[in-house]
Amino acid sequence: MVGRLWLSGGAALAVVSILARNPATGERVTGATTDATGWFGVADLRPGLWLIEADLPPDVVGKRQDAVEVTEDGVVEASLSPLLHRR
Question: Could you give the CA distance from residue 52 to residue 30 in angstroms, rounded to a whole number?
Fold first, then answer.
């Protein structure tokens, strides 16, 4: 599962922690963090529905969570952006 976090103006959100949680099993996968381009990836998720959560900084608002269906066939993309910087 991959994704990218960015602000509505195009700036990337780096060093944001990402959590993947399977609501059916309770399994949690932590340790993913966005890089300098806002990209993140979580490998080796079992097939099924996963909730992807971003621990956004307090001055950023937007969609903190997305649901993705992981299959054995390929890569799925979480959609959490664009986000807004609160002034």
Answer: 10
pLDDT in tens, 46-71: 999 999 999 999 999 998 999 999 99
Q: What is the 3-state secondary structure (H, E, C) of 51-62?
A: EEEECCCCCEEC
**Domain residue extents for the chain:** 2-85
* Residues whose CB falls within 8 Å of the CB of residue 47, separated by 6 or more in sequence, listed in order: 70, 71, 72
Beta-carbon-side half-sphere exposure of residue 42 (alpha carbons within 13 Å): 28
Quick one: pLDDT at residue 35? 97
Would the pLDDT of 7 be above 90?
yes
Q: Does domain 2-85 have CATH number 3.40.640.10?
A: no
